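Need the bound structure for nicotinamide-adenine-dinucleotide, inputs here:
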Amino acid sequence: MSAYENLHAKLGQGEAIAGIIGLGYVGLPLAHALHRGGLRILGFDVDGEKIDALERGTNYLRHLGDDVFAELAGSNRFHATTDFSRLGEADAIMVCVPTPLGPHHEPDLSFVLESARSIGRTLRPGQLIVLESTTYPTTTRDEFVPAMMGVTCERAVGLEIGRDVFVAFSPEREDPGNASHSTRSIPKLVGGMDECSTKIAAALYRRGVEHVVEVSSPEVAEAAKLLENIFRAVNIALVNELKMVLTELDIDVWEVIRAASTKPFGFMPFYPGPGLGGHCIPIDPFYLTWKAREVNRPTRFIELAGEVNTRMPEYVIERLTLALNEEGKAVRGSSVLVLGLAYKPNIDDTRESPSFELIERLMNLGARVEYSDPFIPRTVPVRKHDLALQSVELTPESIASFDAILISTDHAAFDYRALAHHARLIVDTRDAMRSYKHEVSGRLLRA
Ligand SMILES: NC(=O)c1ccc[n+]([C@@H]2O[C@H](COP(=O)([O-])OP(=O)(O)OC[C@H]3O[C@@H](n4cnc5c(N)ncnc54)[C@H](O)[C@@H]3O)[C@@H](O)[C@H]2O)c1
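Answer from helper R.:
Posting the output first, comments after.
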């Protein structure tokens, strides 16, 4: 039996072991979906605290719910470890580690390449390796595979991709907190280094995902993921720019977007905000910008979108400053409560959240700033900020005690009616006060 037939049979019979490197926002829901699909799962992470939490069934990704952690901890088909020498036990390995930007906006592939080298140390015939981390096209072929096969130079002799081992790229499309789509229901793109790699990777994902879409190469899958994220970044920049123009014209941009959305074709709504957040949209487009330099082609849309989106916190502070000024107050000495520290509603993910920049800008201007976020009781250091603040409980008294309330993230748990009744000044970057605007007793300003 060939390596391909053998792996195919193991996947079909649910006997394959799926190894997942990186048990974060992407890797853990994937592990859960494949576990539900009947596979045995061996999770790997460098973070021993996550491994301990998984053993105990303790939730560290709130939006997934406690049941996911209890289910995995109670299963004899799920194990997690920091011991990467066990990678050889897995029949299929998926790499879900971070792909951040370096200090000069250059791709940081260090986590991906470290994983590739770890896999290389125990690579054996019959293994399927899939890179899931978002990256620029050609990474799988030109960076990941050489790092993986390089370590095993001697052992790799005679290990041929497509015959003995299989390699593919399959981008993750996880959207934490999205109640309408799950890892299982979101279609999965798969592009292998050769036809056998594509087919076997598709067979793997069919164990946990309803719809798998095969594409002709890893490069197509890598580029498709970037297109998806660039599409969002550019369209968000467009509505952010429109917001600034329409606000000057005293036109409600959110009503305009709702009106345009009634067109049943050719339009898709995007919404303005205080700036980009999350692991993907503020970062991934620049992976392509970096790669484009190699072929001497500019990525003007991406850079312009980056410029507009990056300016948004500054714009919000400008609006807040003007609003305070109209009440005879300076930012210096005023008290401001920022609502929402997470980068999007109803989750506890703070990565790249614009709220941090808003808070820091206000502090630098001399304001006394606090925040309220039901999901984040105290700040933890993030990439660029270390604020050391504790969440303030929203009560009529606490609301009334601030000169201004700045809504940065529209968590459903906030009591917007109480804000309408007790706040002196509300600066709303999310149209969160839409349903209560007629009840506002102080002032409401959109930003
Ligand atoms: N979060 C999202 O919504 C999302 C959506 C689509 C794609 N992605 C992409 O998926 C990838 C992973 O993102 P994430 O959000 O899951 O990140 P994350 O930070 O939540 O999880 C990554 C995990 O990898 C672990 N890790 C880091 N280095 C490691 C190593 N060398 N070996 C093993 N484990 C290691 C970390 O401890 C962490 O648990 C990124 O490329 C990201 O762009 C993320």
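Comments: Residues 2 and 113 are 29 Å apart (CA to CA). The mean pLDDT is 95.
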